[in-house]
């Protein structure tokens, strides 16, 4: 061999060795492990993805100790490949014992598998699921009962599914999960099935969902002394033909000691969350518990990933990480279809992974979740299957491993729109019948089309838990980034060294066996827990194990079915990080009773037996929460009701609807009784309402006369002020909305005069005539003449997003002749002030302590703007001088507050948050390019955002071409558009002429006054869950230091982004020095869901009330405890 070849070979070996040595995981070859399983997928005209839509969904793996020798063994299912069982011989050597054990299965399509001791003899049995092609008999599931170890040391199995009553012939089964749902001491079974054909999802959905399909519907089996009975209907389990079940997980999600069920569904049907009622029945609560769900859900997992002892949920979908793959798979925004799905009962669903953070349960035991997958950094992982929460580096925090890939891209839009459509047209031209499923399969060239389908191998993902609710992508650093087509996966400590190894299934490639090198590379400690339950549940399924150290506690639940079509080992592994000791291990057994192991040795395994449990534990004493919901008894009954206008129909590319700004509120004592009252604005065609507070802390509706006659207006802001200096509060109401066109009377603001008794009359001549779509109003005596003047903010020009016009400074010139405000904007602030930006809120404050009130304005696509009051004669823009020129944001609220107690005014500013696809900083801003790019000269707003450090248009090819049809030839195919930037879409002349608006920051923040400059300081991560539309600053916790109360959310985003809905309210406890710490929801008592628009604190004499208004929803009232 030439020396050069030898040298190259040597260097390659060195590189491979270095990589394996420095990565956390090391892929072991077949020659070392003896595992040589490949899930081989072959295709022909009769069997392919067109004839069975789940042809590429892959296989599963189950891990468990089948011969009780202390080593975890491995079982693979194969779709068209016989199953294999490998006996762990130690040292990562495995022996194929399939033939001897008798578990290869029949010649049919295998899917999920798990190991379970179904007969309580202490030996793990194997349950195998079947689906796909063939007869009802072919699709009968199999149960291999462990007969024990023979003379050769190899266990043998006997197939007995029919005898136990769980063979379910004919069903299309993805997976099964065993658990003791009725707490009678034996294991019951949930059977997860999927449909093999499509029903119309929008025709009589409720009726169809409540029907039971004998082959497609999910089933719940109760174990009756070793014989299983199908009790699905009586237990409340849906079993319709709409069902496309792909994932199943069991957990006690509301911490009531009962096992609940979470089912993930593909296609239109929503995921199901079945809450165990404890009486043999379940209640489906997914839409009540989860603000939204993933759209095409594959695998899932449930585990406490933030160590607050509450199980969290992650579900997998198909949103790619790269812009290219997003654009070749993404069609137009489907607002109408999305709305139809919601109206048809499928709930809110989005095409991405979702991470549901468990916030505890409400007073009725209903679990509450906040979806924060985008904030956590795990929402975009492409066509994903298994999701596994596991502490892979033993640092005490559960990481997230995700498998990825699809053998052929059947959803590639170029393929579907051109190649499939062309083949279909050719068949029709030839006179071939393609009108039915059978004729379509017979007369379409399906196998030829399959061969033309794109095929892309994609890396799996390994996310390291950062310990702050977020994850970092460590796929490459951990050695888990090899491209492939992976699906089922499971973890176990295969070599008993105290860390979790991985086994990953692949289509048309050998299964990967990864050794975890944490024990060699890190100094992290661990403790392993093995449970022995009572007869009937010998492995303790349903038990909760809590490991407590000085730094906190971790929870794991004994439910082995996790991820996708797979199950993990029963031995629980807890990473301890650098902790040197464990204070206690507590086991809560599923039928009651507790076992406690105090000060156990670390870095070893411990066996805990249920028979040694104590029968009770002392419940923890609940501490009173800071807030209580008193809405039902408050008397404040108002529901904001939006009209049916849809902004996207007129402005196709805008990122959100501008017509959904209400309901906004204002407060004041309008009748002089010392109690603050509240005005709540109505939507277009809905009058606002005044509610008067009574001495007993209730609210009664005031006179409706002045508001009813003005119902045509959309109230978007209001303010109580003594405009005429007669000692009572008058009311200014801002009109707005985006449904109007041109200078219409419906945009005129209104001023209502108070007679001193809380009765109001509109004064039409008090305000200048205008027709601007407004947003807010704030008052100050800017010229020090003894009366209150106004700033009125403008939100937009209807039909011309993102442009705005109409900001006004109104000088109070009232006197003996009556109320009168004069527009002095141009003379005071200059002609450009009127269109300074898409204003959302403003406040007057003396930022430089010169005795004159300055104006601070915030809004969308604009920086925090500061206008210095030059002694009442001029408002000068000093934004840049005070260091705020690059603070462009999605600002929505501003509140003055001296948060650092240094004597000057700071500000708390609400923003969109970081729980979205829109991340921004000074180096990678969001940019909107706007100009008359459409053929009819209408404004086209093109928003760009950064994906993997490159800027791309947010909208899809179809959306952009719809508004700019001349681009159709340039971007004929989706692949042509997939790498396009704004420079490819707009000409140099269009770019030069375009208005450019920037967002550099989406974090709700503190604006700290440093004397002559401001600095931005982000609020804690919990404040970034969603848009912060409500802000209060006060000592809510009673420690003498002011806190921050936030409420928010924003629903009107495009379907592609989905609702911003993760906030349930946040209480941030202040330390008196400008730093704030989130208070747990269980302690704060906050549960403020919905599309919040405003929040006020009302003085009620002895008590104060927090009033929260919401878009298209009812007002909520809280009391401080």
TrEMBL record:
PROSITE patterns named among the record's database cross-references: PROKAR_LIPOPROTEIN
Protein keywords: Signal
Every ASPIC/UnbV domain range: 540-605
Superkingdom to which the source organism belongs: Bacteria
Coiled coil spans: none
Residues spanning the signal sequence: 1-19
PANTHER family: CARTILAGE ACIDIC PROTEIN 1 (PTHR16026)
Protein name: Repeat domain-containing protein
Organism (species): Cnuella takakiae
Lineage, opening ranks: Bacteria, Pseudomonadati, Bacteroidota, Chitinophagia, Chitinophagales
């Amino acid at each position: 061999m030439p020396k050069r070849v030898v040298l190259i070979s040597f260097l390659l070996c060195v590189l491979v060795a270095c990589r394996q040595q420095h990565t956390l995981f090391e892929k072991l070859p077949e020659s070392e492990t003896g595992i040589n399983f490949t899930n081989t997928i072959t295709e022909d005209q009769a069997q392919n993805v067109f004839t069975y839509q789940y042809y590429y969904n892959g296989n599963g793996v189950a891990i468990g100790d089948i011969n009780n020798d202390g080593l975890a063994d491995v079982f693979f299912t194969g779709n068209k490949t016989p199953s294999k069982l490998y006996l762990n011989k130690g040292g990562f050597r495995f022996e194929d014992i399939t033939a001897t054990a008798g578990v290869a299965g029949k010649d049919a399509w295998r899917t999920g598998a798990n190991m379970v001791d179904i007969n309580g003899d202490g030996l793990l049995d194997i349950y195998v699921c079947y689906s796909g092609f063939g007869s009802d008999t072919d699709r009968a599931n199999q149960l291999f009962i462990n007969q024990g170890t023979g003379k050769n040391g190899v266990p043998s199995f006997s197939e007995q599914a029919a005898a136990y009553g769980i063979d379910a012939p004919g069903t299309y089964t993805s997976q099964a999960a065993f658990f003791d749902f009725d707490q009678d001491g034996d294991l019951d079974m949930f059977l997860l099935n999927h449909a093999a054909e499509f029903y119309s999802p929008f025709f009589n959905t409720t009726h169809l969902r409540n029907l039971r399909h004998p082959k497609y519907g999910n089933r719940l089996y109760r174990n009756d002394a070793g014989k299983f009975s199908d009790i699905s209907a009586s237990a409340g389990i849906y079993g319709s033909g709409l069902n496309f079940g792909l994932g199943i997980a069991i957990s006690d999600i509301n911490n009531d000691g009962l096992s609940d069920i979470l089912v993930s569904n593909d296609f239109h049907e929503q995921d199901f969350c079945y809450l165990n009622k404890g009486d043999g029945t379940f209640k489906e609560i997914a839409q009540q518990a989860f603000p939204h769900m993933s759209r095409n859900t594959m695998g899932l997992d449930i585990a406490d990933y933030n160590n607050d002892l509450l199980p969290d949920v992650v579900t997998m979908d198909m949103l790619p990480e790269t812009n290219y793959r997003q654009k070749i798979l993404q069609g137009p925004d489907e607002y109408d279809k999305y709305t139809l799905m919601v109206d048809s009962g499928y709930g809110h669903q989005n095409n991405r992974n979702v991470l549901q953070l468990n916030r505890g349960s409400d007073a009725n035991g209903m679990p509450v979740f906040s979806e924060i997958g985008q904030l956590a950094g795990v929402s975009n992982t492409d066509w994903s299957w298994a999701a596994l929460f596991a502490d892979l580096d033993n640092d005490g925090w559960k990481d997230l491993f995700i498998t990825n890939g699809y053998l052929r891209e059947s959803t590639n839009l170029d393929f579907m729109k051109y190649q499939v459509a062309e083949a279909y047209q050719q068949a029709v031209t030839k006179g071939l019948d393609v009108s039915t499923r059978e004729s379509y399969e017979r007369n379409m060239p399906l196998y030829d089309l399959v061969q033309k389908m794109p095929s892309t191998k994609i890396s799996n993902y390994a996310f390291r838990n950062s310990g702050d609710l977020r994850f970092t992508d460590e796929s490459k650093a951990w050695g888990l980034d090899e491209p492939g087509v992976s699906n089922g996966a499971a973890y176990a400590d295969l070599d008993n060294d105290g860390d979790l190894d991985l086994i990953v299934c692949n289509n048309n490639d050998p299964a990967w066996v990864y050794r975890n090198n944490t024990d060699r590379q890190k100094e992290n400690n661990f403790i392993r827990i093995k449970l022995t339950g009572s007869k009937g549940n010998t492995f303790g399924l349903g038990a909760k194990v809590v490991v407590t150290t000085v730094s906190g506690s971790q929870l794991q639940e004994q439910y082995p079915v996790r991820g996708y079509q797979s199950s993990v080992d029963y031995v629980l592994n807890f990473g301890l990080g650098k902790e040197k000791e464990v204070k206690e291990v507590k086991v809560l057994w599923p039928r009651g009773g507790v076992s406690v192991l105090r000060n156990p040795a670390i870095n070893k395994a411990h066996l805990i037996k249920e028979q040694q449990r104590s029968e009770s534990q002392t419940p923890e004493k609940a501490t009173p929460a800071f807030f209580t919901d008193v809405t039902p008894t408050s008397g404040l009954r108002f529901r904001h009701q939006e009209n049916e206008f849809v902004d996207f129909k007129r402005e196709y590319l805008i990122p959100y609807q501008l017509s959904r700004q209400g309901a906004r509120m204002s407060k004041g004592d309008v009748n002089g009784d010392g109690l603050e009252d509240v005005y709540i604005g109505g939507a277009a065609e809905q009058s606002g309402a005044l509610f008067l507070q009574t001495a007993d802390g209730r609210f009664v509706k005031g006179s409706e006369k002045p508001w009813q006659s003005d119902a045509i207006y959309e109230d978007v802001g209001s303010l109580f002020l003594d405009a005429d200096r007669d000692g009572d509060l008058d009311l200014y109401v801002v009109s707005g909305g985006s449904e109007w066109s041109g200078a219409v009377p419906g945009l005129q603001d209104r001023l209502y005069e108070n007679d001193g008794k809380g009765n109001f009359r509109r004064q039409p001549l008090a305000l200048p005539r205008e027709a601007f779509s407004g947003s807010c109003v704030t008052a100050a005596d800017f010229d020090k003449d003894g009366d209150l003047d106004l700033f009125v903010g403008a939100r937009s020009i209807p039909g011309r997003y993102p442009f705005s016009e109409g900001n006004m400074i109104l000088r109070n010139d009232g006197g003996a002749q009556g109320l009168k405000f004069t527009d002095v904007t141009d003379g005071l602030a200059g002609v450009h002030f009127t269109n300074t930006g898409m204003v959302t809120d403003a406040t007057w404050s003396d930022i430089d302590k010169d005795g004159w009130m300055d104006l601070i304005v915030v809004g969308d696509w604009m920086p925090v703007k500061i206008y210095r009051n030059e002694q009442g004669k001029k408002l000068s823009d000093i934004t840049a001088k005070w260091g705020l020129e690059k603070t462009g944001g999605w600002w929505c609220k501003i509140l003055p507050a001296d948060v650092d107690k240094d004597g000057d005014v700071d500000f708390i500013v609400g923003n969109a948050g970081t729980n979205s696809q829109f991340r921004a900083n000074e180096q990678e801003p969001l940019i909107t390019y706007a100009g008359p790019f459409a053929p009819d000269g209408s404004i086209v707003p093109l928003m760009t955002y950064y994906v993997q450090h490159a800027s791309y248009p947010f909208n899809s090819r179809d959306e952009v071409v719809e508004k700019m049809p001349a681009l159709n030839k340039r971007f004929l195919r989706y692949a042509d558009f997939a790498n396009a930037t704004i420079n490819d879409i707009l000409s140099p002349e269009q770019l030069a002429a375009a208005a450019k608006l920037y967002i550099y920051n989406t974090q709700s923040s503190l604006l700290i006054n440093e004397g002559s400059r401001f600095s931005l300081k982000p609020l804690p991560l919990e404040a970034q869950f969603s848009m912060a539309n409500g802000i209060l600053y006060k000592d809510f916790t009673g420690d003498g230091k002011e806190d921050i109360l936030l409420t928010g959310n924003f629903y009107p985003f495009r379907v592609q982004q989905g609702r911003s809905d993760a906030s349930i309210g946040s209480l941030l406890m202040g330390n008196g020095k400008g730093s704030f710490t989130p208070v747990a929801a269980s302690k704060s008592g906050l549960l403020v869901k919905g599309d919040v628009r405003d929040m006020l604190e009302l003085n009620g004499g002895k008590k104060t009330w927090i009033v929260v208004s919401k878009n298209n929803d009812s007002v909520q009232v809280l009391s401080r405890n």
